[in-house]
Amino acid sequence: MGITDLTSMAEVETEARRELNERLLRLREEASYYCYQCAKCTAGCEAHKLLELEPHRIVALLKRGLVQEMVNSDIIWTCLSCFKCKERCPQKVAPVNILFALKNLAVASGKEVPGDYTAMLTSAMGMGLIQDVQTVTTRGGETRTREGLCLPPISVPTDPAKFQMTVMTVAMEKV
Ligand code: SF4
Ligand code: SF4
């Protein structure tokens, strides 16, 4: 079952939403206590360079309790889940975890997941990669492939259905 089916069949689950709200409250307490808005997270954020996501502002908005506004905003879907903000934070705050919680809340509220994000999730659930192996072109115009760089082939799950079930089980535990 793909992520589209899973999210479209989802009815609004009060219990799941309550748990997500509690998780956000815990993250908010953590952020309010430790985050001093230095913006080091935003300075290193890949999505900030391309898509104007500002993780320090996400933390600030959560501190102010503007959860629904963020859940309704497309900006939460631009996070690349690279975890750089968590690694860079001198206070061990993790804006990426706030963004995960907001995205989960959006899905639990029946909000539509953007198409590109759905494609990425479907790929991750099907073969464990957010996208298929790419051929890239360097700034000098040269083409690079994995084989050309003497890298081994990427392994993909031999039993996609079993792999998908495992991913779903782990994902549900992390909600
Ligand atoms: S790096 Fe950490 S402390 Fe600084 S703004 Fe970001 S979350 Fe807050
Ligand atoms: S995890 Fe998201 S918010 Fe954090 S640095 Fe990466 S793209 Fe930015």
Overall body shape: globular
Strand content: under 5%
Distance between the termini: 19 Å
The percent range for helix content is: 55-70%
CATH architecture: Orthogonal Bundle
Bound molecules: iron/sulfur cluster
| Derived structural class | mainly alpha
Number of strands: 2
Would you list the SSEs in sequence order as H and E?
HHHHHHHHHEEH
Largest sheet: 2 strands, antiparallel
Mind telling me the CATH class?
A: Mainly Alpha
Our count of helices gives 10
Mean pLDDT across all residues, rounded? 85
**Strand arrangement in the largest pleated sheet:** 1-2
Looking at the structure, the CATH topology is Fumarate Reductase Iron-sulfur Protein, Chain B, domain 2
Low-confidence stretches: 6-10
- Supply the number of structural domains: 1
* Spatial extent as radius of gyration: 18 Å
Summarize the structure.
56% of the residues lie in helices and 2% in strands.
Describe the structure.
Mean pLDDT is 85; it is low at 6-10. It is built from ten helices and two strands; from the N terminus they run H-H-H-H-H-H-H-H-H-E-E-H. With 175 residues, the protein is mainly alpha-helical. 56% of the residues lie in helices and 2% in strands. 22% of the residues are buried. The chain has one domain (3-174): Fumarate Reductase Iron-sulfur Protein, Chain B, domain 2, CATH 1.10.1060. Strand 1 and strand 2 form a beta hairpin.
Per-chain topology:
Layout: H1 3-8, H2 14-34, H3 40-43, H4 46-51, H5 55-63, H6 67-71, H7 84-88, H8 95-108, H9 115-127, E1 136-137, E2 143-144, H10 160-174
Antiparallel strand pairs: 1-2
Helix pairs in contact: 2-5, 2-8, 5-8
This protein binds iron/sulfur cluster (SF4) (2 copies).
